[in-house]
Design a protein that fits this description.
Strand order of the largest sheet: 2-1-3-4-5-6
Oligomer: single chain
Order of helices and strands: EHEHEHEHEHEHHHHHH
Strand content: 5-15%
Radius of gyration: 20 Å
Shape: elongated
Structural class: alpha/beta
CATH topology of the largest domain: Rossmann fold
């Protein structure tokens, strides 16, 4: 069982997270506190969790400060951020402080649970929306080169499917993609499902994340 400590200064948020996460058979909420000071106190007096899931903005001690303090005392303890604050600077600061993941409070149920499960497996995780924002920031004005032939061969993806994938990554709907590349909406839906099948991903968000991680998109 993967043990989680919730740190958020809103009781309703903590209660909601408990309702979302506890039904998952691999996850267990072993405690919840309202700020960084209380989190440090909890760690000193109780069984250590496997993961601290923390907000950023808290009155008594902000999340970044807490991450620094926790990692200094418990370097092997994983910490992930769950926040509405998603600017590139804050995300970078969280990872530099020692966070293993950064999730958005705008995430849906599936992405939130999938992200925490991935973190429980020792992997880093960042919500798709935040990851795309970071990508735009760091690749601004950078020349983009894609070895299309290698991509086509490795994943058996057609040039049309790659174009659909690029448009999906920009957030266009099936109808909007159909209008842009002169296809029917049903055909675009078929391309989207074929891409998910070929890359063995679970959904569109997972497909886009896979595409960036595996250089299908740059």
């Amino acid at each position: 069982m993967y043990k989680i400590l919730l740190v958020d200064d809103h009781t309703l948020v903590r209660n909601g997270l408990r309702l979302i996460l506890e039904p998952h058979k691999q996850l267990s909420i072993i405690g919840e506190v309202g700020d960084g000071f209380l989190a440090l106190e909890f760690l000193d007096k109780n069984e250590l969790p496997d993961l601290i899931l923390t907000d950023i903005k808290m009155e008594e001690m902000d999340g970044i400060t807490m991450i620094h303090k926790v990692k200094a005392k418990y370097p092997d303890l994983d910490i992930a951020v769950l926040s509405m604050v998603e600017d590139n600077s804050t995300v970078s600061d969280a990872f530099r402080a020692g966070a293993i993941g950064f999730l958005s409070k705008n995430s849906d149920y599936d992405e939130l649970v999938a992200g925490i499960v991935q973190i429980s497996q020792g992997k880093r995780y960042i919500s798709m929306e935040i990851g795309l924002s970071l990508l735009d920031h760091f690749q601004l004005n950078r020349p983009i080169y894609i070895d299309k032939e290698a991509i086509f061969h490795r994943y058996d993806i057609s040039e049309r499917e790659l174009k659909v994938l690029e448009l999906i990554s920009h957030g266009f709907t099936n109808a909007e993609i159909a209008d842009q590349i002169f296809l029917s909406k049903r055909t675009v839906e078929g391309h989207r499902q074929q891409l998910i099948d070929k890359t063995k991903t679970k959904n569109t968000a997972d497909l886009v994340r896979f595409a960036f991680q595996n250089k299908l998109l740059q």
